[in-house]
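Before relying on records like the one below, remember that each one covers exactly one chain. Contacts with other chains, cofactors or solvent are not represented anywhere in the record.
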Amino acid sequence: MYKRILDHLNTAILLFDSELILTFINTTGEILLADSAHHLIGQSAEELFKLSDPALMCNLKQSLSMAEPLLDRALILNRMTHNVTANFSATPLLVNEQVKEILVEFQQVDNHLRISKEEQLLTQQNTARLLVRGLAHEIKNPLGGLRGAAQLLDLELDDPNLKEYTQIIIDESDRLQGLMDKMLGPNKLPVKKGINIHEVLERVRQLVQAEASGSLLIKSDYDPSIPNIYADKDQLIQAFLNVARNAVQAMDGKGNIIFKTRIHRHMNIGRKRYKLAVKCDIIDSGPGIDASMMSQIFYPMITGRADGTGLGLSIAQSLINQHSGLIECNSEPGNTVFSIFLPMEVGNE
């Protein structure tokens, strides 16, 4: 009975004996350590935490020797794929005033920090997007009148040299009209159906490879076991294409790009939790993104290139958001990773 209760807790529960050998771990603990109870039970704390924060073992040994509970915050736990941050507590269980077992609790805090950061960024980006959309609407109205007047003037003129000027006005009006349409972002709701994410990525890879020079190498690292997802294929192609083109432009068409897919379990996106999500990484070997730009790269009209419009990543984010997904970016020289998370089912509040 107690095991069923512990398995439904949101905190990871680990039980060690007096030799600091793991004797029990609940389901949340298995998720936190990214391994099964069958494999973990019987291992020593030294083995489990050898690559994690050294404070973990210090706390465990101190709690064992002093027979007193201990608390610690924001400790780094090493996992096979990535590290997580968790709050830690150790409670000695005494029998005849001797420590027989130590109950350890971990509460992962990455998700709380991440949710707060996501909400802040989304609020800022939505505010900026609304401002830009309002500005674009205001510009489109007089722009249409300007183009119409230029067309009427063109019909009245007989001098070809003067017609050349009116044609410039018309062409530039059309160019600005196209820019305004891009600033307004996606205006169609996604038409979702079951699709293979690798078909989307392969289509993007073919398009990028065809556009780029021969010195660009695009590799793939796919998990073939990923099932179909429910999404709009054309919108995802556009979103991934915008991110991939951004990588190509950052590298001046020279270097390596890797398309990578993996399954993530028990994924939080915003305030929703999903049992399964597909993570698609677009990794490039370019110079990296300047730290001062990192918090702004998804804002419309923000770009690090003189010839850029700053709309590609903003549009990509809007398209992914329409699929209840998320885009993250981590960058350092030689390794920039855009990670796109797409849920594979309806999330629970």
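The chain has three domains: 2-108, 113-184, 193-343.
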